[in-house]
Automatic annotation (TrEMBL):
Pfam families: PAP2 (PF01569). The keyword Flavoprotein does not apply. Residues 41-112 form the Phosphatidic acid phosphatase type 2/haloperoxidase domain. GO terms for molecular function: sphingosine-1-phosphate phosphatase activity. It comes from the Archaea. Signal peptide: none annotated. Coiled coil: none annotated. The chain crosses the membrane at residues 94-114, 135-154, 189-217, 229-251. This is Conserved protein. Keywords: Membrane, Transmembrane, Transmembrane helix.
Amino acid sequence: MEDGIENTSPFNGNGESGFFKLPDREILESFRLQKVFPDSPFGFPSGHVALTTALWGGASRVFNSRTAGRLAPMVVLLMAFSRMYLGRHFLGDVIGGAALGLTLLVVFTYFLKSPLKDDFFEKENFKLAFRQKNLFFYSAMFAVPVVFVSLSLISGEVAGFFLGTNTAYLLIIRKGLPEDEGSTGQRALRVFITLMMFGLSALVLDAGFGIIGIAGYPDDTLIEFLKSFIPAFTIWISVSICIKLGLYNIASTEQIE
């Protein structure tokens, strides 16, 4: 049992019969009536699998890395396995998450091959102006995730990650993108700072909302959103710190304040 709900993981002692097991009648009935089932760990599609598929697939495209391309399927399978192992998702949930991630990956691949790729790195296209390209990028980066989460096509967690990342990118590019140059040590330190800021913020939020939960506040979509939005937003803070520390080529970028 977890939060009063039976753990239906196929690895909870039920053997192979539990692998394709459906939720209990009470849960199915609550879904059918579109009722909120308190503290339910179930959800379609799996946001973890969707993000893993999109991010690892996207990384292999961006860096043109065969290694990342070969590792991506294994990482996605491990993520899907772990979500079912923990009883957080059913097989259909992780398949749906993989399908969503692949859809995002296909869109991203077409984007990389289109003229929009170069436009996406132009500071001019992210100013507050009623220009076609500006409106397109703002809509794609902010309006689309909001619409998707309002229609329950994605979870608050997924929407928070995308909106946090996009907000950080917007703040960075409006001051000028720093060039990805420097020694191996500088690049490694930039990655370390980014991961540290992301991880620390996630830990602090988990602890903070855990205390709030004990005080009786519900863990709703807004909290899920904030728990993913804020860590993703720290990308902007990390870039600012790296510039202050001289880990980017200051001569080729404008100061981020």
